[in-house]
Amino acid sequence: MSPPALTVTDLTMSYGELRAVDGVSFEVAEGEFVGILGPNGAGKTTTLEIAEGLREPDSGTVRLLGESPWPRNLALLPRIGVQLQASAFFEKLTAREQLETFGALYGVGSARVDEMLDLVGLSDKAGTPEAKLSGGQRQRLSIACALVHDPDVVFLDEPTAALDPQARRNLWDVLREIQARGKTIVYTTHYLDEAEVLCDRVAIMDQGRILAMDTPARLVRDLDAATHVTLERGALPADDARALPGADGVTQDEVSLTIATRAPAPLLTALAERGTLDGLQVRTATLEDVFLHLTGREYRA
Description:
This protein is of the alpha/beta class. It has helices at 44-52, 95-104, 110-119, 135-147, 165-180, 192-198, 216-223, 238-242, 264-273, 287-295, and strands spanning 6-15, 18-28, 33-37, 59-64, 80-83, 153-157, 184-189, 201-206, 209-214, 227-232, 247-252, 256-261, 281-283.
C-alpha cells in the first residue's frame, strides 16, 4: 500500500487572538480527490497554505510526498501544483504565453503547453490576451499553469468561486480529467453540491476545526435524516397524508404539502395507489443537512 500523499497532524495557527486552525489532522491517499468544505472564515485556505509550505504553523506537522514542505522545500516544488484563491498573471501576455512562461521555470516544452490548453478547453483562446478572457476561462488558465509541469499533487483553493453555473460545470469536467490522469487533488470550496459530486472524501470544517471527514455518501447515510416527499397542495388532504404508512410528519404551505419519512418505499407505494404521483418530488439528505446537523446553524457562504 502506497504511503499517503499528504499527512497533516495537529495543526494550529493563530492570527492574534483568532485561532484560524485549531488542531487539524487528516490524510490524503495517493490519487484521491479530497475537498475541504466550509464557509468563508472556516480556516480552509490557511490549512491549505500550511500544507503547501507557504505558511509555517504555530504547531503540528505536515508530510507532503514523504517530506516536510516547511521551511520552503525546493525538492517538492516540481512535484506540486498550486492554484491560489486570487490568481495573478503577467500583463499583456496571451494564454499561451502565460503557460509558456510558467512552463519555462520547469523546462517544459511547447507540446506540454498545447496539451494543457487542450485539457482546460482553451486551445481556441491560445492567442487571446489574459485580460480579455472571461472569469471562467481565467480560472481554467490558472489551473493549467498549476498543472503545466505535471505535478503529482495539485492544490486548488476555491477554483469555482464567483463563476456562473455553466462555467462551474465546465470546470468540474476539467477537475475530473485531472484526477483521471492519476493526480492527487486537495481543494477547498464552500459549494456543498460541488463537493458531493466531485470528491472521494470531504472534510467539513468550521471555526478552525474538522467536524467530520468521510465519503459524501457515508456522511449522509450516517446522519439518518428523513426523506421529504413533496406534493402539490390539494393533491392530498393533510389528514390523509398523516395516516399514510411511513409518514412521520406533514407540513404544508400555500403551494405544497411535504411528508417526512424514514420509510419512503411504503409511503411512495401508498401514494402511487392513490394516483398522486404527478408533480411529486423526493428529497433525500445531502451534505448541507450534514453540515447543518454538525454546526447547528445555517450554512454561511
